[in-house]
Design brief:
Strand content: under 5%
Number of strands: 0
Distance between the termini: 61 Å
Number of domains: 2
Low-confidence stretches: none
Shape: globular
Number of helices: 16
Order of helices and strands: HHHHHHHHHHHHHHHH
Radius of gyration: 20 Å
Oligomer: single chain
Structural class: mainly alpha
Mean pLDDT: 94
Length: 234
Protein backbone atom coordinates (compact mmCIF):
# COMPACT_ATOMS: atom_id res chain seq x y z
CA UNK A 1 0.00 0.00 0.00
CA UNK A 2 2.80 2.41 0.88
CA UNK A 3 4.49 1.82 -2.49
CA UNK A 4 1.23 2.42 -4.35
CA UNK A 5 0.72 5.68 -2.50
CA UNK A 6 4.27 6.78 -3.29
CA UNK A 7 3.82 5.80 -6.95
CA UNK A 8 0.61 7.82 -7.17
CA UNK A 9 2.30 10.81 -5.52
CA UNK A 10 5.31 10.65 -7.84
CA UNK A 11 3.17 10.37 -10.98
CA UNK A 12 1.12 13.36 -9.87
CA UNK A 13 4.35 15.28 -9.34
CA UNK A 14 5.46 14.53 -12.91
CA UNK A 15 2.09 15.70 -14.20
CA UNK A 16 2.50 18.93 -12.21
CA UNK A 17 5.51 19.77 -14.40
CA UNK A 18 3.24 20.17 -17.42
CA UNK A 19 2.44 23.80 -16.75
CA UNK A 20 3.52 27.08 -18.29
CA UNK A 21 5.78 27.69 -15.30
CA UNK A 22 8.21 25.03 -16.55
CA UNK A 23 7.92 25.43 -20.34
CA UNK A 24 11.06 27.53 -20.77
CA UNK A 25 13.31 25.55 -18.43
CA UNK A 26 15.97 23.26 -19.87
CA UNK A 27 16.47 19.55 -19.23
CA UNK A 28 19.26 19.95 -16.67
CA UNK A 29 17.19 22.37 -14.61
CA UNK A 30 14.19 20.07 -14.71
CA UNK A 31 16.20 16.98 -13.83
CA UNK A 32 17.60 18.74 -10.81
CA UNK A 33 14.15 19.92 -9.76
CA UNK A 34 12.61 16.44 -10.17
CA UNK A 35 15.63 14.47 -8.97
CA UNK A 36 14.07 12.91 -5.87
CA UNK A 37 10.92 11.82 -7.69
CA UNK A 38 12.89 10.35 -10.57
CA UNK A 39 15.08 8.37 -8.18
CA UNK A 40 12.05 7.03 -6.32
CA UNK A 41 10.45 5.84 -9.54
CA UNK A 42 13.67 4.17 -10.67
CA UNK A 43 13.80 2.30 -7.38
CA UNK A 44 10.25 1.04 -7.94
CA UNK A 45 11.42 -0.58 -11.17
CA UNK A 46 8.83 -2.62 -13.05
CA UNK A 47 6.15 -1.68 -10.51
CA UNK A 48 6.15 1.81 -12.05
CA UNK A 49 5.99 0.71 -15.69
CA UNK A 50 2.21 0.81 -16.24
CA UNK A 51 1.81 4.24 -14.66
CA UNK A 52 4.71 5.63 -16.70
CA UNK A 53 3.31 4.20 -19.93
CA UNK A 54 0.10 6.16 -19.38
CA UNK A 55 2.13 9.37 -19.49
CA UNK A 56 3.24 8.63 -23.06
CA UNK A 57 -0.11 9.95 -24.29
CA UNK A 58 0.92 13.52 -23.38
CA UNK A 59 3.71 14.28 -25.85
CA UNK A 60 5.50 17.64 -25.79
CA UNK A 61 5.33 17.60 -21.98
CA UNK A 62 7.94 17.09 -19.28
CA UNK A 63 5.90 14.24 -17.77
CA UNK A 64 6.03 12.35 -21.08
CA UNK A 65 9.74 12.97 -21.56
CA UNK A 66 10.65 11.92 -18.03
CA UNK A 67 8.41 8.85 -18.30
CA UNK A 68 10.46 7.76 -21.32
CA UNK A 69 13.78 8.43 -19.56
CA UNK A 70 12.58 6.32 -16.64
CA UNK A 71 11.41 3.48 -18.90
CA UNK A 72 14.85 3.61 -20.49
CA UNK A 73 16.49 3.05 -17.11
CA UNK A 74 14.00 0.49 -15.81
CA UNK A 75 14.32 -1.61 -19.01
CA UNK A 76 11.03 -3.48 -18.53
CA UNK A 77 10.21 -5.52 -21.68
CA UNK A 78 6.55 -4.60 -21.09
CA UNK A 79 7.36 -1.08 -22.29
CA UNK A 80 8.60 -2.19 -25.74
CA UNK A 81 5.26 -2.03 -27.59
CA UNK A 82 4.15 1.26 -25.95
CA UNK A 83 7.48 2.83 -26.92
CA UNK A 84 7.09 1.57 -30.50
CA UNK A 85 3.55 2.97 -30.55
CA UNK A 86 4.90 6.30 -29.34
CA UNK A 87 7.48 6.44 -32.15
CA UNK A 88 4.93 5.25 -34.71
CA UNK A 89 3.10 8.55 -34.25
CA UNK A 90 6.12 10.21 -35.90
CA UNK A 91 5.60 13.42 -33.91
CA UNK A 92 7.83 16.50 -33.97
CA UNK A 93 8.86 15.94 -30.34
CA UNK A 94 12.45 15.16 -31.29
CA UNK A 95 13.77 15.11 -27.73
CA UNK A 96 11.21 12.49 -26.64
CA UNK A 97 11.57 10.55 -29.91
CA UNK A 98 15.31 10.25 -29.46
CA UNK A 99 14.93 9.15 -25.84
CA UNK A 100 12.35 6.51 -26.86
CA UNK A 101 14.76 5.24 -29.52
CA UNK A 102 17.53 4.92 -26.92
CA UNK A 103 15.11 3.25 -24.49
CA UNK A 104 14.35 0.52 -27.02
CA UNK A 105 18.07 0.09 -27.69
CA UNK A 106 18.83 -0.20 -23.97
CA UNK A 107 16.03 -2.72 -23.40
CA UNK A 108 17.86 -4.74 -26.03
CA UNK A 109 16.87 -8.25 -27.08
CA UNK A 110 13.14 -8.00 -26.18
CA UNK A 111 12.91 -5.03 -28.57
CA UNK A 112 14.37 -6.79 -31.60
CA UNK A 113 11.55 -8.92 -33.01
CA UNK A 114 8.79 -6.33 -32.41
CA UNK A 115 10.95 -3.71 -34.14
CA UNK A 116 11.70 -5.98 -37.10
CA UNK A 117 7.99 -6.72 -37.56
CA UNK A 118 7.15 -3.01 -37.28
CA UNK A 119 9.77 -2.00 -39.84
CA UNK A 120 8.72 -4.72 -42.26
CA UNK A 121 5.16 -3.36 -42.16
CA UNK A 122 6.32 0.23 -42.55
CA UNK A 123 8.65 -0.57 -45.45
CA UNK A 124 5.81 -2.41 -47.20
CA UNK A 125 3.89 0.88 -47.16
CA UNK A 126 7.01 2.90 -48.10
CA UNK A 127 7.21 4.56 -44.71
CA UNK A 128 10.57 5.43 -43.18
CA UNK A 129 10.75 6.33 -39.49
CA UNK A 130 14.34 7.18 -38.63
CA UNK A 131 13.81 6.65 -34.89
CA UNK A 132 12.36 3.15 -35.31
CA UNK A 133 15.18 2.32 -37.71
CA UNK A 134 17.73 3.64 -35.22
CA UNK A 135 16.12 1.71 -32.38
CA UNK A 136 16.67 -1.61 -34.18
CA UNK A 137 19.97 -0.97 -35.94
CA UNK A 138 21.45 0.43 -32.73
CA UNK A 139 21.08 -2.94 -30.96
CA UNK A 140 24.20 -5.08 -31.35
CA UNK A 141 23.34 -8.61 -32.38
CA UNK A 142 22.93 -11.10 -35.23
CA UNK A 143 19.22 -10.47 -35.85
CA UNK A 144 19.48 -6.69 -36.35
CA UNK A 145 22.59 -7.24 -38.49
CA UNK A 146 20.88 -9.85 -40.68
CA UNK A 147 17.85 -7.58 -41.14
CA UNK A 148 20.11 -4.68 -42.13
CA UNK A 149 21.98 -6.85 -44.64
CA UNK A 150 18.74 -8.19 -46.10
CA UNK A 151 17.25 -4.71 -46.61
CA UNK A 152 20.52 -3.30 -47.96
CA UNK A 153 20.79 -6.13 -50.49
CA UNK A 154 17.20 -5.51 -51.56
CA UNK A 155 17.96 -1.80 -51.94
CA UNK A 156 20.79 -2.67 -54.33
CA UNK A 157 18.71 -5.19 -56.32
CA UNK A 158 15.50 -3.12 -56.43
CA UNK A 159 16.42 0.58 -56.17
CA UNK A 160 13.11 1.65 -57.71
CA UNK A 161 11.21 0.22 -54.76
CA UNK A 162 13.03 2.56 -52.38
CA UNK A 163 13.09 5.71 -54.47
CA UNK A 164 11.73 8.83 -52.80
CA UNK A 165 11.19 7.53 -49.28
CA UNK A 166 14.13 5.44 -48.10
CA UNK A 167 17.31 6.89 -46.49
CA UNK A 168 20.05 4.41 -47.31
CA UNK A 169 22.81 6.41 -45.62
CA UNK A 170 20.77 6.68 -42.42
CA UNK A 171 19.83 3.01 -42.55
CA UNK A 172 23.41 1.77 -42.96
CA UNK A 173 24.92 4.18 -40.42
CA UNK A 174 24.69 1.74 -37.50
CA UNK A 175 26.68 -0.93 -39.28
CA UNK A 176 29.44 0.76 -37.29
CA UNK A 177 27.75 -0.36 -34.05
CA UNK A 178 27.32 -3.91 -35.38
CA UNK A 179 31.13 -4.28 -35.48
CA UNK A 180 31.11 -6.59 -38.51
CA UNK A 181 33.73 -5.88 -41.17
CA UNK A 182 32.29 -8.58 -43.42
CA UNK A 183 29.69 -5.97 -44.46
CA UNK A 184 32.32 -3.82 -46.16
CA UNK A 185 31.93 -5.37 -49.66
CA UNK A 186 28.18 -4.73 -49.44
CA UNK A 187 28.67 -1.10 -48.44
CA UNK A 188 31.19 -0.55 -51.22
CA UNK A 189 28.70 -2.04 -53.67
CA UNK A 190 26.22 0.70 -52.74
CA UNK A 191 28.81 3.34 -53.62
CA UNK A 192 28.84 1.98 -57.18
CA UNK A 193 25.17 2.91 -57.61
CA UNK A 194 24.64 5.95 -59.83
CA UNK A 195 21.42 6.92 -58.07
CA UNK A 196 23.16 8.10 -54.88
CA UNK A 197 23.18 11.79 -54.09
CA UNK A 198 26.50 13.48 -53.17
CA UNK A 199 25.46 13.68 -49.51
CA UNK A 200 24.48 9.98 -49.43
CA UNK A 201 27.80 9.08 -51.02
CA UNK A 202 29.68 11.15 -48.43
CA UNK A 203 27.80 9.61 -45.49
CA UNK A 204 28.30 6.08 -46.80
CA UNK A 205 32.02 6.75 -47.30
CA UNK A 206 32.23 7.85 -43.66
CA UNK A 207 30.41 4.71 -42.54
CA UNK A 208 32.81 2.53 -44.53
CA UNK A 209 35.80 4.32 -42.98
CA UNK A 210 34.38 3.84 -39.48
CA UNK A 211 33.64 0.13 -40.02
CA UNK A 212 37.03 -0.48 -41.61
CA UNK A 213 39.09 1.30 -38.96
CA UNK A 214 36.97 2.24 -35.90
CA UNK A 215 39.84 3.58 -33.81
CA UNK A 216 41.37 5.52 -36.68
CA UNK A 217 38.00 7.04 -37.53
CA UNK A 218 37.35 8.05 -33.91
CA UNK A 219 40.78 9.67 -33.79
CA UNK A 220 40.08 11.58 -37.00
CA UNK A 221 36.70 12.81 -35.70
CA UNK A 222 38.27 13.92 -32.41
CA UNK A 223 41.01 15.78 -34.27
CA UNK A 224 38.36 17.60 -36.31
CA UNK A 225 36.49 18.54 -33.12
CA UNK A 226 39.71 19.80 -31.55
CA UNK A 227 40.48 21.90 -34.63
CA UNK A 228 37.02 23.48 -34.55
CA UNK A 229 37.35 24.25 -30.84
CA UNK A 230 40.79 25.74 -31.42
CA UNK A 231 39.42 28.01 -34.16
CA UNK A 232 36.63 29.10 -31.80
CA UNK A 233 39.15 30.07 -29.13
CA UNK A 234 41.25 32.23 -31.45
Amino acid sequence: MQQMEMLSKDIEFLKSLDTEEFYEKNEDEMRMYAHQTLEELIQMGNHATSALIELLNTEFTWSCFFAITLLRQIKDPASVFPLIDFLRKDSDDSMANEEAMFALQDIGDPSIQPLIEELEQEFDTKTYNTYLVGALTGILGPSPYEFMVHVTNDFIRNPGRYKGWFCIDDFTYNFVIQERQDVLPLLRKILEMKTLTPSERLELSDTIAAVEDPEGYKKKVQETINDIEHIGET
